[in-house]
């Protein structure tokens, strides 16, 4: 048996926000961590990305396994390279109140697979990941 509920006429649908679709923040690491340790953390957590934070806990960016591997495999790599050294162009962030339509458009335009979701103080709340 299927029960139908009618929607009152004149009521506009509420747009979904990033808060409705974001994943838990997952592993957050400090920007003074080395690339090797970050890759190890990522492997242990079985995730494809890490949120990078500064000493005050403010999210400074997101790094993917592909980005970290590319740095490690480069000819200029040393075991002293820290995450802050490779976050020269931090990724954009989004608010949990951003509509999904706006966030999806922004991510597709910038060709991003994941986008950090931060509060008004820059603290990481989660990650919005697109399915391609």
From TrEMBL:
UniProt superkingdom: Bacteria
One Pfam family cited in the UniProt record for this chain: CBS
Entry keyword annotation includes Transport: no
Entry-linked SUPFAM superfamilies: CBS-domain pair
Key words, A-Z: CBS domain
Domain (CBS): residue spans on this chain: 29-67, 84-129
Protein name: CBS domain-containing protein
């Amino acid at each position: 048996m299927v029960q139908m509920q009618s929607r009152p006429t004149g009521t506009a649908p509420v747009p979904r926000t990033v808060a409705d679709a974001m994943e838990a923040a997952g592993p957050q690491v400090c920007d003074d961590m080395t690339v090797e340790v970050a890759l190890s953390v990522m492997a242990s957590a079985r995730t494809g990305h890490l949120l990078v934070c500064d000493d005050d806990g403010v999210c400074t960016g997101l790094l993917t396994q592909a980005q970290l591997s590319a740095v490690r495999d480069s000819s200029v790599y040393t075991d002293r390279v820290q995450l802050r050294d490779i976050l020269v162009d931090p990724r954009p962030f989004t608010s949990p109140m951003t509509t999904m339509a706006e966030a999806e458009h922004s991510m597709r335009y910038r060709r991003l697979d994941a986008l950090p979701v931060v509060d008004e103080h820059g603290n990481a709340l989660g990650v919005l990941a697109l399915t391609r």
